[in-house]
Design goal:
With about 350 residues, the chain is α+β, with helices and mostly antiparallel strands. About 50% of the residues lie in helices and about 15% in strands.
Length: about 350
């Protein structure tokens, strides 16, 4: 953040040390830090009154906040961002953490989905936070498509891939669909498949429907459009989100309103709102990215932080992401190398299985 970088450059050594000590203490203990506490830890021996003046200046700059009168200071979101960008010291990955993550690959006998489930559980256990694993979409050519009505507002599409993989996906069909229109839609798509992947099929679908709309029932055309949009559209891709460690995150906050905000976050995650954004966030920068509070609209209500890193396939294409959700006072210096290493592990696994 440019503003944070400018403020950091303008600080003198005393202000920078006071700021760093406040943030480090808050990240470790979660409590406001007072001036008397700082007098015992600063390299320079100064009075509590002098430190209070420095903290007041930092509060005026928007870097610190005082939650209660005479309760000490805590970092603001701007302060946390400035600390992460300019003062964070990232540790080397702990040997024990590395062994726990390596163990998730096991014998390699499981399918990729099973291994990624274990990776999510291990990442949650190692970080004591909630882990996210966005799994890659299946991109093999399709052999056959079938639609099955499950009611007036639910339908199932059965996808048979050329490599033998079979997937069943639920979606909401357009109003008025009938068994006949579903058969027409399936026949239309099966005639177009020709060994194409879903992404390729979607690209030619619009032109084909526009050209051949008179040849198929209107409902069938709507069903095709709705079905493919649900597979490849915004907010609900064919990728799968694995969330592990919800209890860890809930257990970090004692306040009732905090618990309510975190539950709201997980309700959003479970409904898969904005899940497509995880890849967009990861693709926007190299390596591990840290999002604090309202910097990510998904976490703006809960006040949580996200540490996320993309992983790539053998062609160096970003196909998924792994991350950790926690309170804004995450131990970033420890979490960043864990997320980075986990992303490398998953990328290696995907490359070996492809």
């Amino acid at each position: 953040m440019k503003e944070g970088s400018r403020l950091l450059d303008e600080m003198n050594d005393r202000s920078r040390e006071v700021f760093r000590k406040v943030v480090e203490s808050y990240l470790e203990f979660g409590d406001p830090v007072g001036s008397r506490t700082l007098t015992r830890s600063l390299s320079e021996k100064v009075s509590a009154a002098t430190i209070r003046n420095v903290m007041q200046d930092l509060e005026f700059l928007g870097l610190l906040d005082s939650p209660h009168v005479s309760a000490g200071r805590i970092p603001t979101q701007l302060g946390l961002r400035m600390f992460v960008d300019g003062l964070l010291e990232v540790r080397d990955l702990d040997h024990t953490d590395r062994e726990k993550l390596d163990a998730t690959l096991g014998s390699g006998a499981d399918d990729v989905g099973g291994v990624l489930d274990r990776v999510g559980a291990a990442l949650s256990g190692v970080t004591h936070g909630a882990s996210l694993v966005l799994t890659p979409k299946h991109e093999a050519p399709i052999k056959h498509i079938e639609f099955v009505s499950l009611g007036h507002d639910r339908a199932l599409v059965v996808l048979v891939f050329g490599d033998g993989h079979v997937e069943n996906r639920l979606f909401t069909p357009p109003p008025g669909q009938t068994p006949s229109s579903m058969r027409e839609a399936a026949n239309f798509l099966n005639a177009l498949i020709g060994g194409r992947t879903l992404a390729e099929l979607r690209r030619i679908m619009a032109d084909e429907i526009a050209r051949r709309r008179q040849e198929i029932d209107t409902l069938a055309a709507d069903l095709i459009e709705a079905g493919l949009a649900s597979w490849e559209g915004q907010g609900d891709t064919s990728a799968r989100l694995i969330v592990r460690g919800r209890a860890n995150l809930l257990g970090t906050e004692a306040e009732t309103d905090e618990l309510g905000r975190i539950r709201t976050l997980f309700d959003d995650l479970e409904r898969k709102r904005d899940i497509a954004e995880f890849l967009e966030l990861a693709e926007a920068g190299d390596g591990v990215r840290i999002f604090i509070g309202s910097e990510n609209k998904l976490f703006s209500l809960s006040g949580s932080s996200l540490v996320v890193s993309p992983y790539m396939n053998a062609d160096r294409k970003i196909i998924g992401a792994v991350g950790v959700i926690g309170p804004t006072r995450l131990n970033y210096g420890r979490i960043v190398p864990i997320v980075d290493y986990t992303a490398q592990l998953v990328g290696k696994l995907i490359a070996e299985r492809s």
